[in-house]
C-alpha cells in the first residue's frame, strides 16, 4: 500500500505529557512512522522553545502559538486544519472543536477526513451552556462531514448510531505501555502506604469524575487507605476537596505524576482501582489499570461497562461503593484482576490499535456504513442504552458549570 501523509490534529502534542489522546499519538508514531509520513500539531503554550523538537518517535512536529484546550482549542484545531491542507492526504482530527471547518474541507478539497469525537464532549459538566451548544454543533458537523468517524467505545458507537444514523468504527486505546514496576526502598520511604493494602485512583479533579462522592465514601472507611492522584490546584473545586479531605491520615491526595514508571509503581500494587468517570468513552486510565491486572470498581455508566465487558464491579452511590470496599473478599479481588487482565490482553494492545488506524488511513471512506439502530446495537442492551441517553446514570454533580 502507498504511504500516506497524515496530519494529526487536536492534541497538546509530543512528547506525550498530558492525556489519553497524547498517549495515542505517541503510540501511533511509534508503530506507524515507517509506513506513513506523520505530522503532529503541538501547542506552543505547553512546549517552551528551548524544549521543542523537530521530530519525535519518527513524526514531524509543528508548533502553533495557541493552547490545545479550553476556548483556544477551537482556533488551535482550525489553524491546524488549514495548515494541513497544504500537504496532507489524510487529516486525523482528535476531538471536535475544529469541526466547524470540516464541511468546507470536504466540499472544496480532496483531503480525506477521519474524526474521533472523544466521547460525548458537549455533555461534560465542566462546560457552560454556550460551550456545550458549540461543541454539540461541532460534533454534528465533524461526524456528518468526515469520511470516517471513530468511536473509542461500543457505547459511543451506539450513541452516534442513534444520533447521526451512521456506524462509526470502534477503535479503543491500548494499555500495554503500562507495566507494573517493583517497589524500591526509595518508593517505600516516599509513599509509606505501599506497605499495606490500599485503593487507588488517578484522574483529573473534575465533578464528572465523581471525585467528591468517592472521597466522601472513603472518608467514612478509615480502615481502608485510599490514594488519589490528580490536579488539585487547577480549580477551586479541587482546592476545596483537598482542603476538606487532605487532613485525614488514611487519605493520600497526591499531585499529578507524569512519570509513567512512578505512576505504575503506585497503581500497580493497589488492591483495587476505583474508576469514577461518568462521561467519555474508553478511558485510557481504565484500560491501563485493566492491563496491569487490577481489580476494577467503576461508576456504572454504559461506557465503563462496555470497556470492562460488564465484568467489573460497579457503583452509583456512596453507599454502594462503601459496601463493595467493605464486603468484597481478597480472593474475589484477585480473581477480578485476572479477568480484567484477560480482557485487556485480548482488546487493548497498541499494535492492534495501530493496525486499525493504518487501515483507515488507506481507506477511510470504506469504514462508514449507514443503517438502522437495530444493526448498531453491540455489547449493550437497549434498556442500558436508553438509560444512558436519558441521563439516568448521571451524577448530580454533572450540572456543575464553569465560565467558558
Question: Which key phrases capture this entry?
Answer:
Glyco_trans_1, alpha/beta, six-stranded parallel β-sheet, Rossmann fold, membrane, globular, eight-stranded mixed β-sheet
Walk me through the topology.
Elements lengths: L4 E5 L10 H13 L4 E7 L11 E2 L2 E6 L7 H13 L5 E5 L7 H7 L3 E5 L12 H16 L3 E4 L2 H11 L1 E2 L1 E2 L14 H6 L8 E4 L8 H9 L6 E4 L6 H10 L5 E4 L5 H9 L3 E4 L8 H8 L4 E4 L2 H6 L5 E3 L2 H10 L2 H18 L2 H13 L6 E2 L2 H4 L5 H9 L14
Parallel strand pairs: 1-2, 1-5, 2-4, 5-6, 6-7, 7-9, 10-11, 10-13, 11-12, 13-14, 14-15
Antiparallel strand pairs: 3-4, 8-16
Helix pairs in contact: 1-14, 7-12, 10-13
Summarize this structure briefly.
By secondary structure, this protein is α/β, with parallel strands linked by helices.
Per DSSP, the total helix count is 16
CATH architecture of the largest domain: 3-Layer(aba) Sandwich
Q: What is the beta-strand fraction?
A: 15-25%
According to CATH, the fold-level topology of the largest domain is Rossmann fold
Determine the N-to-C terminus distance: 45 Å
Weakly predicted, low-confidence segments: 371-404
Mean pLDDT: 88
* Domain tally: 2
- Strand sequence of the main sheet, in spatial order? 3-4-2-1-5-6-7-9
Amino acid at each position: 500500500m502507498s504511504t500516506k501523509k497524515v496530519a494529526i490534529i487536536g492534541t497538546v502534542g509530543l512528547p506525550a505529557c498530558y492525556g489519553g489522546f497524547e498517549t495515542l499519538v505517541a503510540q501511533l508514531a511509534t508503530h506507524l512512522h515507517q509506513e506513513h509520513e506523520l505530522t503532529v500539531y503541538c501547542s506552543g503554550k505547553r512546549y517552551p522553545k528551548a524544549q521543542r523538537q523537530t521530530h519525535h518517535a519518527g513524526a514531524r512536529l509543528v508548533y502553533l502559538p495557541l493552547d490545545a484546550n479550553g476556548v483556544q482549542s477551537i482556533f488551535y484545531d482550525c489553524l491546524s486544519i488549514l495548515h494541513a491542507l497544504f500537504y496532507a492526504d489524510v487529516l486525523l482530527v482528535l476531538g471536535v472543536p475544529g469541526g466547524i471547518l470540516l464541511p468546507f474541507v470536504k466540499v472544496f478539497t480532496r483531503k480525506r477526513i477521519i474524526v474521533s469525537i472523544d466521547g460525548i464532549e458537549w455533555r461534560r459538566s465542566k462546560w457552560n451552556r454556550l460551550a456545550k451548544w458549540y461543541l454539540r454543533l461541532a460534533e454534528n458537523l465533524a461526524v456528518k462531514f468526515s469520511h470516517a468517524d471513530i468511536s473509542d467505545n461500543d457505547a459511543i458507537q451506539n450513541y452516534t448510531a442513534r444520533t447521526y444514523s451512521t456506524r462509526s468504527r470502534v477503535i479503543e486505546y491500548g494499555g500495554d505501555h503500562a507495566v507494573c514496576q517493583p517497589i524500591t526502598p526509595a518508593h517505600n520511604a516516599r509513599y509509606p502506604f505501599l506497605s499495606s493494602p490500599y485503593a487507588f485512583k488517578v484522574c483529573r479533579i473534575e465533578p464528572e469524575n465523581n471525585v467528591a462522592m468517592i472521597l466522601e465514601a472513603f472518608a467514612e472507611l478509615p480502615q481502608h487507605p485510599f490514594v488519589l492522584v490528580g490536579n488539585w490546584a487547577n480549580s477551586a473545586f479541587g482546592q476545596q476537596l483537598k482542603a476538606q479531605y487532605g487532613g485525614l491520615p488514611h487519605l493520600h491526595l497526591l499531585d499529578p505524576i507524569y512519570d509513567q514508571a512512578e505512576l505504575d509503581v503506585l497503581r500497580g500494587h493497589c488492591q483495587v482501582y476505583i474508576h469514577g468517570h461518568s462521561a467519555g468513552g474508553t478511558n485510557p486510565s481504565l484500560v491501563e489499570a485493566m492491563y496491569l491486572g487490577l481489580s476494577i470498581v467503576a461508576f456504572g455508566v454504559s461506557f465503563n461497562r462496555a470497556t470492562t465487558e460488564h465484568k467489573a464491579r460497579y457503583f452509583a452511590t456512596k453507599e454502594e461503593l462503601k459496601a463493595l470496599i467493605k464486603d468484597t473478599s481478597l480472593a474475589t479481588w484477585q480473581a477480578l484482576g485476572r479477568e480484567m487482565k484477560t480482557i485487556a490482553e485480548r482488546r487493548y494492545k497498541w499494535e492492534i490499535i495501530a493496525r486499525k488506524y493504518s487501515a483507515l488511513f488507506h481507506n477511510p471512506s470504506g469504514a462508514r456504513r449507514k443503517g438502522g439502530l437495530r444493526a448498531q446495537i453491540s455489547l449493550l442492551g437497549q434498556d442500558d442504552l436508553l438509560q444512558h441517553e436519558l441521563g439516568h446514570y448521571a451524577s448530580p454533580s454533572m450540572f456543575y458549570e464553569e465560565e467558558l
